[in-house]
Design a protein that fits this description.
globular; alpha+beta; about 90 residues; cell outer membrane; 5 strands; 2 helices
Length: about 90
C-alpha cells in the first residue's frame, strides 16, 4: 500500500489507498497519522507510524517512524518514489 503513494495525490486518493487515518488533527488538516503494527504469526514485530503531510490539499511527503524506541525517521519517501516512477 505504501508503494502506491506518490507526491501530488489528493486526500481522497490517499484515503482510498491507506484507509481512514488513525489520527486527524482538527487544528492541522495538513497532517494525517497512521498507526499500526507489523505482526507475523502470533509475534508482534514492531509498531509502525506514518505521518503524511499535505500542501494545497496534495500529498507532499510522509515521515515513517522506524520504531517507538528510535528517534530516527525516514523522510521524503514520496519524493524518492515519484522520481523513480518518472525515470521508468
Amino acid at each position: 500500500m505504501l508503494s502506491k503513494l506518490e507526491k501530488g495525490l489528493t486526500k481522497a486518493q490517499v484515503q482510498y489507498i491507506m484507509g481512514t487515518p488513525s489520527v486527524k488533527d482538527p487544528f492541522n488538516s495538513s497532517k494525517w497519522d497512521y498507526i499500526g503494527y507489523e505482526i507475523i504469526g502470533n509475534e508482534l514485530l514492531r509498531e509502525v507510524h506514518y505521518s503524511l503531510h499535505f500542501e494545497d490539499e496534495k500529498l507532499s511527503k510522509w515521515i515513517q517512524k522506524l520504531n517507538s524506541d528510535s528517534n530516527e525517521d525516514v523522510i521524503g519517501i514520496t519524493e524518492k518514489l515519484s522520481t523513480e516512477k518518472s525515470e521508468k
